[in-house]
Design brief:
108 residues, Immunoglobulin-like, five-stranded mixed sheet, globular
């Protein structure tokens, strides 16, 4: 029997955590930061982002590249639909905490 490294077990779980059961993607706001910082999605498909704000203050998801902005209240969840996207990088930020809340959607 081969021994699997802990990393080889955790990587597939991390991918599953980012993708929800409804083929959406989870983006978490915590400590005024987006997690994950880079969210990889398939190009050419409409995507549902589930943005979960775990902070005690509201945050606004904003992206000029994605043409989206939405306030996510404190300790609440919001759905944001994007795409279909061409392959590329699409930056986003939290308008209320722009110095720390930065991220990128990567479509490929």
């Amino acid at each position: 029997m081969k021994h699997l490294s802990l990393l080889s077990l955790l990587l597939p779980l991390a991918a599953l955590a980012a993708e929800s059961a409804d083929n959406g993607y989870l983006l978490i706001i915590e400590d005024h930061r987006f997690k994950p910082v880079e969210l990889v999605v398939p190009a050419g498909k409409k995507i549902r982002l589930r943005v979960e704000n775990r902070d005690s203050t509201p945050e606004e998801f904003e992206s000029h590249a994605l043409n989206r902005e939405k306030v996510v209240p404190a300790r609440a969840t919001a759905a944001i639909f994007i795409g279909p996207l061409s392959p590329g990088r699409y930056p986003f930020f939290g308008e209320f905490n722009e110095k720390t809340a930065q991220g990128t959607v990567i479509a490929h």
